[in-house]
Specification:
Elements lengths: L15 H14 L1 H4 L2 E4 L5 E4 L8 H11 L4 E7 L8 E7 L2 H9 L3 E5 L5 E6 L2 H5 L3 H6 L8 E5 L7 H11 L6 E5 L5 H8 L2 H11 L7 E9 L7 H15 L1 E6 L3 H10 L12 H7 L16 E6 L5 E5 L3 H8 L4
Parallel strand pairs: 2-8, 7-8, 10-11
Antiparallel strand pairs: 1-2, 3-4, 4-9, 5-6, 6-7, 9-10, 11-12
Length: 332
């Protein structure tokens, strides 16, 4: 895996949870016009429904994407060229790609329970640092201390109370100081916050390619807004394909030009053996087993790598409009 030397020293106490709390409070305060709902669990935690039994929407998803980044990244929705068939794009920038994308935004906390018929979700956000359950968090060396925290769950179910209590315990907070934001992939808010991971997806592959993470200075990226689908697999496929077939990321790095040039070659999704078909087809071909999918598939279609030390820029990958249209249901 990628090395992180030179990064952990910058985060003696990351403060991610304190940084995000004003955004969480603002989300809750504006829940009515954002078309989201809140409720309390038996143990007192706050559940935010962003698309299960309520509409949610684009703005809710944009704000949740920024919460996933602990308030240290910005998400925007803007239009691209008139010639683009899918003009509306989710743009993302972050001031610390390693800490923000891998330490907070990455959906790396796997949560499951057999209660109430079973529950599974991936958790994203600054609560991951408090829990410290993942190998990636331990490798980054990032720590935090807080009495309030937030976790974003990709799910269309409410978590059972026993799991909610366990999450709070793992994070070292009382359930009353825990906020769980529920974002179904089939919802507009869910689609926005997942596509808002375009830079995070790139950073995770940078790590997998063993590029020195301390040399990544800054990043920006964007990907098209996919039309949601009521079918889970189709909707999941579209959010992935938005990044795989038309996502673009610009990384600013330090180091030798040879390293930057190689990263530009290896980072795009087209470098994967599983590239080319809509993700839903790939997923079904492996019988729904994520572990069998080439992990190097999850990356943007186009990358630009600028070496700040030399001033040279290297590019790799290309968009795939036909595959994107097939995934997004153009003409169906």
């Amino acid at each position: 895996m990628g090395t992180v030397e030179g990064t952990a020293a910058n985060w003696p106490q990351s403060g991610l949870n304190a940084q995000v709390q004003p955004l969480v409070e603002d989300l809750l305060r504006n829940r009515d016009w954002l078309r989201i709902k809140t409720e309390r669990t038996e143990s007192g935690a706050t559940l935010v429904d962003a698309g299960i039994d309520t509409l949610g929407g684009l703005e809710a998803g944009r704000r949740i994407a920024e919460i996933c980044m602990a308030g240290l990244g910005r998400a925007s929705i803007s239009s691209s060229q008139p010639s683009d068939q899918w003009r509306w794009r989710i743009g993302v920038t972050t001031c610390d790609p390693v800490l923000v994308c891998l330490g907070s935004q990455y959906a790396g906390w796997m949560l499951s329970s057999e209660d109430d018929g079973g529950f599974f979700a991936l958790g994203s956000g600054p609560a991951r640092v408090l829990a410290g359950k993942e190998e990636l968090i331990q490798e980054l060396g990032v720590t935090d201390s807080a009495d309030q925290t937030c976790l974003v769950l990709e799910t269309d179910q409410r978590p059972p109370n026993g799991l909610v209590e366990q999450i709070a315990k793992d994070c070292g907070v009382s359930p009353g100081n825990l906020t769980l934001i529920l974002t179904p992939t089939s919802s507009l808010a869910g689609a926005v916050q997942i596509v808002g991971r375009v830079v995070e997806v790139a950073m995770h592959k940078v790590h997998a390619l063993e590029f020195p993470m301390g040399q990544v200075v800054d990043a920006a990226g964007s990907a098209p807004l996919p039309p949601p689908s009521p079918d889970f697999i189709t909707g999941m496929g579209r959010t992935n394909d938005a990044i795989l077939f038309d996502g673009e990321v610009h990384l600013f790095v330090n180091g030798p030009d040879d390293q930057a040039r190689q990263l530009a070659k290896e980072l795009p999704s087209s470098a994967s053996r599983d590239y080319g078909r809509p993700f839903a087809e790939v997923f079904q071909a492996y019988n729904g087993d994520f572990s069998k999918i080439d992990p190097l598939l999850f990356s943007p279609a186009r990358v630009t790598i600028t070496n700040l030390e030399s001033g040279q820029t290297f590019r790799g990958g290309e968009g795939n409009r036909n595959a994107l249209n097939a995934s997004f249901g153009e003409g169906a």
